[in-house]
Amino acid sequence: MIRALVRGLGELLVTSGVLVLLFLAYQLWWTDVVGDRAQQRTTDALAQQWGDAAAPETEDAASAEGTTTAEAEQVLADLPADVVALLRVPRFGEDYVRPVLEGTTDAVLEDGVGHYDGAALPGEVGNFAIAGHRTTWGAPFNPIAELVEGDAVVVETETEFHVYRVQVTEIVLPTDVRVIAPVPSQPGETPTEEWLTMTSCHPMFSARERYVVHALLEATTPRADGPPDALQELT
Q: Residue 165 is inside which H or E element, if any?
């Protein structure tokens, strides 16, 4: 009787262990696969819709050639929110590009980087505040802690490239929403400059804190003029 109970308990523990491993594989590997594919489809669709002649010569521009207008429209229509921009960060790699969608719901963050409701738009006076996963669902902000002062963060819209330069990084509690105020960390102040703030969970595999990067607009150029030189940095 005791032997049967021990055997049954052992089988239960083995089964539980297998289920835990499967869940971890889903969370840490499969969601990344799904997220990467979805975000690449969105990038391709935007390149098709905007016309990729002015886009940087990266994998998304090349793959967009095989995307029809109808396919691109369907991809964008299926998104959980409107696309605000494309985000390019040379420090993260020359082919790094992620879509920025409106809002920060779970559904939005599974499909790209999220733009905080009410935050400034790219290039506007105020704070273009965005959030992204550091792990799972494509982990668009996985290397966020690698950014250093002076690094370029390029935001591409249908008509313009906005080049921001990293000024400072900080780690705050999730409740510290001052970092996404129109003047970062100075709620109530009237903005006079164009900021970009990136936020993500910290430390890795935890939501205990937030890693925050603040960048200031350096230049805005027409997209028709081609990619800014900042995109060639670190390559």
A: strand 160-172
